[in-house]
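User: Predict the complex.
Assistant: Input components as received:
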Amino acid sequence: MTPAAGPLYQQLASHYGQAIEKNTLRTGMRMPSVRELMRRHRISLSTALQTLRLLEERGWLEARPRVGYFVRGIAVPPLEEVADADLSAPLEAVAGAHPFAGINERISVLVESARRADVKVDLGGATPGPELFDTAWLNKTAIALLREQPNLLAQSRSTATTHPDFQAAMALRALDAGIRVAPHQVLATVGNTEAMHLALTAVCQPGDVVAVESPTYYGLLQGVESLGLKTLEIPCSQASGISLEALDLAVRTQPRLRAVVVVPDLQMPLGTLMPDAQKAALAAFCRTHDLALVEDDSYRPFVEANERPRPIKSWDTSGHVVYCESLNKTLAPGLRQGWMSAGRWHERIQMLKFAQSRNTPAFSQLLAARWVGAPAFERHLQRLRPRLRVQREQAAQAIARHFPAGTRLRLPPGGLSLWVQLPAGVRSSVLFREALREGIRIAPGAMFSNTDRYEHFIRVSCAQAFTEQTDEAYRVLGRLAAAQAAV
Amino acid sequence: MTPAAGPLYQQLASHYGQAIEKNTLRTGMRMPSVRELMRRHRISLSTALQTLRLLEERGWLEARPRVGYFVRGIAVPPLEEVADADLSAPLEAVAGAHPFAGINERISVLVESARRADVKVDLGGATPGPELFDTAWLNKTAIALLREQPNLLAQSRSTATTHPDFQAAMALRALDAGIRVAPHQVLATVGNTEAMHLALTAVCQPGDVVAVESPTYYGLLQGVESLGLKTLEIPCSQASGISLEALDLAVRTQPRLRAVVVVPDLQMPLGTLMPDAQKAALAAFCRTHDLALVEDDSYRPFVEANERPRPIKSWDTSGHVVYCESLNKTLAPGLRQGWMSAGRWHERIQMLKFAQSRNTPAFSQLLAARWVGAPAFERHLQRLRPRLRVQREQAAQAIARHFPAGTRLRLPPGGLSLWVQLPAGVRSSVLFREALREGIRIAPGAMFSNTDRYEHFIRVSCAQAFTEQTDEAYRVLGRLAAAQAAV
């Protein structure tokens, strides 16, 4: 990950860092001693010591006095956890005066300023870098596909929005997750963004209300706004996700509430895992009140657990759950391949998809079908999870090291980012602008709500390899935050 | 095209047919005589005569008594031309009671029944078959691209909806068409369907009115309806396209009219070429009345002319023209690649695209950029046009041969389909169902309007190679139409 350049002790630290990352050296194992390192690599005492100290500093090793260095276990940084908000009531429903004047405007300004900046360290977008994918396998499969089906790129598939091979592969994938979906109920989408857009278009009329988690992924807020719908932000507990108490109040006070959108596993940005009991209760709640429950299941493959959690869809007995998965972050970001199974709204969504963008390219669908069905995909995820865990811990440690007192975070049980609460007085929108000037991109809290209640939060991505430069970026961020806190 | 199988005279006819198609034997050239054929191919007199008669029957040759056989010029079938409708007034504005209850429902039923049928001859979808594309070149370029950019499929491009290489290539393409578009004004889309959807979403509010050509492409009617907008059908002249007289009346009677959508070159399904004066007038009209003019320019590359017509966008001085092009039918249907340049609505449409589907795959964009910029693309179109011309003529001749008296059509100056008027008493929705039972798919007139005024029309595709089986399909269609006409 860290390029093998620079002084010898840095090269050696990278070498061992990678071995830990790849689980060749596992948590709790004893690191070779100073003497062993000297002999093995024919290095001086001082180089051996520098190597071990750097590995310790980067969070790879912990020193046990008079025993030696050991590979670190889960790093819990010495930071307080983020506290839950009041879970008893929903926030005010928000609708822009105009469908493009609220969050869309805000996000566009942020995205545009990031695009124009000379970003050197991108902690903004939480998508794994190309080095975390099996690109050799991907390209080999793509080339094989083009050779086997020479007409693939030139073939029109005007009557079918989704390729039957993709439908079959996703139906199998669903079965694996405990969901029964017939192949014909699988609809290919352009990532998850289109899936959400189709789901909300099918379920709502302009002016209707959509309940979302607070904080939530900004793309969802944009989608809701661009459809002329109202967003109702429902507070989330970090232990169990969306507050059913607040949702219950919302049903009674908002007659035009039509849909609830959730990311039950590794909620974005909180990283919460919704417990099974809560999933079952939420499914029952939506059934009882005839609400569409739109489930974004794109992060479940990143959960650190021996047993994979079950999606809410597996508790759906009435077709109220619209299940969506993006394969962007697990399979290949460049394909923009997603899929959905829309329960009782299937016919209407198929119709809308046909009217709004027709079919997605068969090339991407077939590549996704082959990849997702292959054992290589599970192996890829098994390699990816511990690497991301290490990257999350490295980021958390860097924050603990560099950020001012009063900074809080909770290490999530998986995923691609951290949600960080800054000390009182630090405004993340200011931090965003100042950091960008230093070539560092972060996601300020304002992106995750229509309110300003997350102004003192940032989301940082752990999807890219943690390098010297990343550590330096956290140091700069910490300095900027401290300067604001001191004012 | 016709497979080289069957009796010897059929093989020879195919051989010469292909030579004519490829312009090796050009219009007006004298065909080898009976004696020459006998000597050249060592065949009997009867085989030589059968070969020439089959070529004549298929429309490749014409016999000049006592002189010999000549390669045919443009075949004008002995059919009357379709008459124009009343051009003085728009039709009633139509809005479904519900955004999914009108044309979307109708089209879905048709598409679904075609999908379920065992279609042997598809005259429904007007996209060229894979044999009309340079698939070897496409695949070679795709594989080279994956080898040169091994991270292409695994790379996330979250802040940019359009790849800069694609923007540069399309800006050059636009320049070639007489349009000045800066690279940053190019937005990649999922075919034209998404472009239309984005344009209308940006320009209109639910309940607004969109003027469309009548008849028009059904996908547009679906898109308008699915956005909760009203369609106002404006009659078209076959000589000059959309009626400005009717449009003028529409502006005065429809205060919520916001946009006009046209296919100025090779209007779908009429095949009309809008004259330059009309294009300039329409651009000025929309500027004067502050209407968005959405221009679908996907068919211009199929125009049979030495000089390519200019898009309306080239007369746009105020940014009122939203220019859209799908590369589906010219480049590769499997990529679903389109683009747009949205004039004064650019910022808003970029925002909407980001909110509704993010970026389209870089793989497709880069492949399109290479292809469209290469001389091979122009060569491909130069080969494609005469092949399509021959296929249109073959279809027109088959209709003239097999359809009942009273059938009318006008050979369009290019394109992928024919618009056929059936005799009084023939209902194309019935013909559609009956033909499907025989394994033949056509597009009934009802797909091209929210009214039933095209119930006695069909659109037939000429995008697939014309074979014995195609001829047989026209024979069956003619028989079915005649049976209806006789009742």
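Chain B has three domains: 8-71, 93-103+134-376, 121-125+378-486.
Let me know if you want any component modeled separately.
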